[in-house]
Amino acid sequence: MTEIKDKVETDIFIDNKKPLFEVSKDDSDEKNPVYMVGIDEDISKDIVIDFDDVKTAFCKKFHKSYKVFKSADALLYSEVKNKLIFVEFKNGKVKEVKTKLKDSLLVFSNIVDVDLKFCRKYLEYIVVYNYEKNKQYVEQEKDKYRKEEQNKSQSLSREYIEGFVKPLFRLAKDEIILWDLELMQDICVSAVHTYNVDEFVKYYSKNCTK
Q1: pLDDT tens-digit profile of 76-91?
Q2: For residue 118, what pLDDT is reported?
Q3: CB 111: neighbour CB atoms within 10 A?
Q4: What is the rounded CA–CA span in Å between residue 134 and residue 2?
Q5: pLDDT by residue (tens digit) across 1-25?
């Protein structure tokens, strides 16, 4: 299990770490910064890799601007899953999240000398969004998902549903992946998640704390 964690034990990762609440900061309004992971959260001071800073350091080695690549905000290691997880925090409008993942994978794979096959197996991607600022879109997507599931269930025979499928529907808790990010799953990374802040905190507390 240590082999995956060892990938991020080199200097460029070790030298670019911050508390989780810091990498979750939206400083687009310098006078009123917003920490998506609040300082009062138990996980807020956990030390994670600031992947924006890693990207900047990587570009500097080639005497290039950090603007060459987009990048995810953080890189985490999950001992529970034995996986590395890119996290992008979006306090405002969610955009460029596919590009941020692809560019992050390019930088990461060059630093640690792995290929896309490795990333597909050992990396995940999470976009953490502000629910209130994306409420209309999120609820539209959830309604669309519910209708699709309802249509699927109605297409099955009543006997089959009553005998077998209905219990499964009751137990199923399928995640809805937003912003078409399911396209990136199983080809770029092993899994993609789109979570509001509360959902992310629960995921992190379950999978990333020691």
Answers
A1: 999 999 999 999 999 9
A2: 97
A3: 18
A4: 38
A5: 558 999 999 999 999 999 999 999 9
**Count of residues in the chain:** 210
Structure tokens at 164: 């077998």
pTM, entire model? 0.88
- Residue written as token pair 């030298």: 15
Query: Are 205 and 43 spatial neighbours (Cβ–Cβ below 8 Å)?
Result: yes
Question: Per residue in 180-203, pLDDT tens?
Answer: 999 999 999 999 999 999 999 999
Q: In what order do the strands lie in the sheet with 191-196?
A: 17-19, 47-50, 74-78, 83-90, 123-129, 191-196
All residues at 6 or more sequence positions from 192 whose CB lies less than 8 Å from its CB, including other chains: 124, 125, 126, 127, 177, 181, 182, 184, 185
C-alpha 102/C-alpha 118 separation (Å) is: 14
* Phi, psi of 30, rounded to the nearest 5 degrees: -60, -30
- Report how far residue 50's alpha carbon sits from residue 72's, in angstroms, rounded to the nearest whole number: 9
